[in-house]
Amino acid sequence: MVAGFVAVAAGCKVDQAAFDARIFACDPSAKNPGCGTDAQGTPMTCYPGSLLDGTDFCAPGCGDTPMSLPDQDAVCVEGGAQLAFCDPSTYPVGPEGLCGNSQLDCLRTDVTSPEGVCTTMTTCTHDVDCTDPVRSTCAATFLTELYSKNPNLQADHLYCLQKDCQSGNSSCSPGQSCLPLLVPASAHAPDICVPNCDAQGNCPPNHVCFQKISGPANPAICIPGLLGFICGSDIDCLVGKCLSDNDPTPEDGLKLCTLPCARDADCAIYDSNQGTFLCAVDASGDGHCEMPNAYRGNSCHTDADCTRDVNTSCFFTAPPTSPKDLGTCLRACDANSNCAPRAEIGHTCLPFYTAAGTAGGGCFPGFFPYPCQTSANCVGDLSCRGADLTTTPPTLGHCTTLCQTDDDCNADRWTAGQSFCAGGVCVPYLAAGSSCSADSQCATKLCQADTSMTTSTSPTGKVCTEPMQ
Amino acid sequence: MKRVVRLMVLGLLAVLLGAARPARAGEKIAVLVLGSSEKDAELADNLTEVLIAYVAQHGGFEIAGKEEFRARLGVENEQRSQQCLDDLSCLGRAGVSLGVRRIVAGSVGTRGKQFLFNLNLNNVEQGRVESRVFRLVEGGVEDLIKAVQEASGELFRPRVEPGKIQVASEPAGARVSIDNAYLGVTPLLSGTLLAGPHAVRVEADGRFPWASRVEVRPNEELQIRLSSDNLPRRRSWPPYAAYGTAIAGVVALAAGGFLGELSQLNPTGATRQAAADDLEQKKSFAMAANASFATAAVLGAVSIYFFIRYHEDIFGRSEGYDSTP
User: Fold this and answer.
1) Domain end among A119, A136, A162
2) Which of B268, B271, B284, B307 is the mutation pick for testing A, counting most A CBs within 10 A?
3) Is there a domain that residue A218 lies in?
4) Alpha helical stretches, state H, A194-294
5) Which residue, B143, A266, A250, is CA-closest to A258?
6) CA A469, CA A444: separation in Å to the nearest integer?
7) pLDDT score recorded for residue A457
8) How far is B235 from chain A (nearest CA, A)?
9) Contact in structure between B200 and B212 (CB atoms under 8 Å)
10) pLDDT higher for A396 or A29?
11) N or C: less crowded end of chain A, CB within 10 Å?
């Protein structure tokens, strides 16, 4: 009897919390993944954790809009899965780890702030943490190399990836694709394997589905949310937050992974072969790191493919002859062949062809040494030199910078590695065969006496030559 | 012969010991032990001396002379004397002539290595035997003397008159036990009982028993009349209710424990949905377990109430003795 009273006092109940904390595997490709509902009756969803070398598991549903859910200490990621928020910068207490569950690990979702989500994968901080012989490089290594000028990068609790798929000519794991093989070479994509988007165009945290956000002419691969990259929500950004650029009409602008800044130097620490950054300050005085490469435009076949960036059309470098020809979505130049800056980034009008095959000008970031009418057409600290708008037609100048020596050109972030000083301005390296007077003027870094059989046209008697193989 | 001599020495010792104690003045009695046969005559004679000495000392009697008694019997041999001792009228005559009211008469004989003797305390005045003893003694003469002394003490021990108990009850038919011996049903008149305390217990079906210690006095008939108040009705349902609720409580507790154990098993299933369905089932088990525990608690409380409230109906009354029938 006493036992009965004790039992009643204690009560017998099912540990719903323990059940909710359990991780159940699921098949995201199944018609019914079998995740059921949570304790409140809300349908659960099958989160494709395998996209990042984890396992697919059932997670609470949270709707289709990825967002942070601070009141629930969670993050709603792509695919409508609600993952628990975690702070990867804290020290784990106990065997349950940072996520309070030994089956989960804290995946950092921003290398600039203590943010992470709990998922079924083993995170890494160093390459030795990656036990998979294929995915043997930790994204932390990749990021620290990429952003080598930034000493404060919080590159830990990341995922393992496969490097050198293009240079090593190796195939990626099933479900992944070699990024540089699928995006234009001008994007300087890192030589890594990236996950493919799932059937719904969803990607794991820190990634955005390129095709979903850029249109059907682009591959269905998950692009890492590096600084200045296109994004849909904060969860897409591995670096910074996903914010609208400073376009005067926000709906016409782009959403980019960005960081707050006060001056260009704050952004310059993120310069890499992915692009050069500047601090774009809006009318309210707020600055954000942005890179002109974001406005290179996405690939397209027709104007209909240009959905990512409003008011853009599909422009081609040559008249398209096949529906498979790839163009670039750009805004058309105005009647005066001029382009308005976008997000404090100067744009210049370049000659292209429309999808119909007619000549047409498209606005492109005013990189060195693109033609320009005014300095407003140039990016960063470049200025338009040699333009004369009084002539008919106006004489175009070039986006460049002033210099006294070649070092001045290499010191400028926008001309470094691609110019030498000539006539007080930085000019592009000379191509092979061009007359030169010094090695530093040649792209090949080799200026030698012209030994061609024909009569030399070089006033210096030297030409840029290819290095001997 | 040697045994007789030793007997005489012992008898003399006994007499001397007896003489050492002060004799009380009192009733005069005659004492005579005869041999069962001629060969036991000497043994009988010595036993007579032993007996006289013991009786004189412990009983405070004045003893008539042995030889005088024998002479008053008016017989020549042991056999004829024995016949007179067995005849109260013959003894009466001898007693009157001796001036005694009571005569201790007996016989002794041997059978192999055994001694047989009997002693009668004859009341010649009333013509009845007041007391008699018989002994078969194994051993030697010392044992015989000791047995004779004990027998003589028993012979003169005052006789306790028996009493009786009459038990009647309302309703009749109750079972009566006296001193844990079942005697019959009421109304009942017991057989003779030794005077003194006796334990009486009266039981009737469906009623609480009545028990008491009573004092039976000699030659008295103790009347015990029990009313229905003395034998109150004993309810039959409380044991069923108390034990029934207790058993039901235990069953409910066991069921609760079983269901509780089931509810604590890890939910299983091929998918989370299946595991969630299993969890829901386990929640049902947990609820059922709690209901069972609550039921067990209630039943336990009810059972305890029954046990406390009706404990006499369930366990019976404690065996205290009612002194007021």
Assistant:
1) A119
2) B271
3) yes
4) 210-214, 264-268
5) A266
6) 12
7) 64
8) 25
9) yes
10) A396
11) C
Q: What is the dihedral of CA B11, B14, B16, B22, to 10 degrees?
A: -140
The answer to whether residue A366 sits within a structural domain is yes
Q: Is A12's CB within 8 Å of B270's CB? A: no
Q: Test A13 with B286 for CB contact under 8 angstroms.
A: yes
**A244 with A288: CB under 8 angstroms?**
no
* pLDDT at position B265 over 80: yes
Query: Residue B20's pLDDT band (boundaries 50, 70, 90)?
Result: very low
Please report how many Cα atoms fall inside a 13 Å half-sphere around the Cα of residue A20, on the Cβ side: 15
Measure the CA–CA gap between A393 and A267, rounded to whole angstroms.
38
- Give residue B75's pLDDT: 58
Determine the Cα–Cα distance for residues A320 and A52; give it in Å rounded to an integer: 38
Note whether A337 and A406 are same-domain residues.
no
Q: Does A12 touch chain B (CB under 8 A)?
A: yes
CA angle (A128 as vertex; A165, A148 as ends), nearest 5: 65
Element (H, E) at A397: strand A397-400
pTM above 0.80, yes or no: no
Q: Are residues A98 and A186 in the same domain?
A: no
Query: Backbone dihedral region of A148: left (phi > 0), alpha (psi from -120 to 50 degrees) or beta?
Result: alpha
Host domain of residue A292: 176-383
CB count, 10 Å around CB of A46? 26
Q: Is A206 found in the same domain as A95?
A: no
Q: Of A77, A104, A119, which residue constitutes the final position of a domain? A: A119
Whether residue A379 sits in one domain with residue A446:
no
A72, two tokens: 């629930």
Mean pLDDT of chain B: 84
Residue B17 has pLDDT above 70, yes or no: no
Cα–Cα distances in angstroms (integers) from residue A29 to residues A22, A33, A77, B3, in the given order: 21, 7, 18, 125
Q: Which two tokens stand for residue A362?
A: 């498209």
Same domain, A313 and A404: no
For residue B22, the model assigns a pLDDT of 34
* Mean pLDDT calculated for residue range B142-164: 85
**Does A202 share its domain with A238?**
yes
What residues of chain A, 29 to 58, have a C-beta less than 8 Å from chain B?
A: 32-37, 44, 58
- Across the interface, do B271 and A13 touch by the CB < 8 Å criterion? no
| Residue percentage of chain B with pLDDT more than 70 | 88
For residue B1, what pLDDT is reported? Answer: 43
- A11 and B300 in contact by Cβ < 8 A? no
> Smallest CA–CA separation between B275 and chain A, in Å?
9
Statement to judge: residues A180 and A82 lie in one domain: no
> Is there a domain that residue A24 lies in?
yes
Helix spans in chain B (H) = 2-19, 41-59, 66-73, 78-85, 88-98, 141-156, 237-263, 272-309, 311-315
Residue A79 within a domain = yes
Q: Which residues of B touch A (CB under 8 A)?
A: 246, 249, 252-253, 256-257, 259-260, 263-264, 267, 270-277, 279, 282-283, 286, 289-290, 293-294, 296-297, 300-301, 303-304
Checking if the pLDDT of A393 tops 90, the result is: no
| Complex ipTM value | 0.71
Residue A7 and residue B267: Cβ atoms within 8 Å?
no
pLDDT 10s digits, A1-14: 555 556 555 678 88
Per DSSP bridges, beta strands A371-372 and A359-365 are unpaired
CB contact under 8 A, B286 and A34: no
pLDDT score for B301? 94
Indicate which of B243, B263, B266, B272 best probes the interface with A, i.e. most A CBs within 10 Å of its own CB. Answer: B272
Contact A36 B260 (CB under 8 A): no
Same domain, A104 and A241: no
Are B259 and A16 in contact (CB < 8 Å)?
no
Give chain B positions within 8 Å (CB) of A16.
Answer: 279
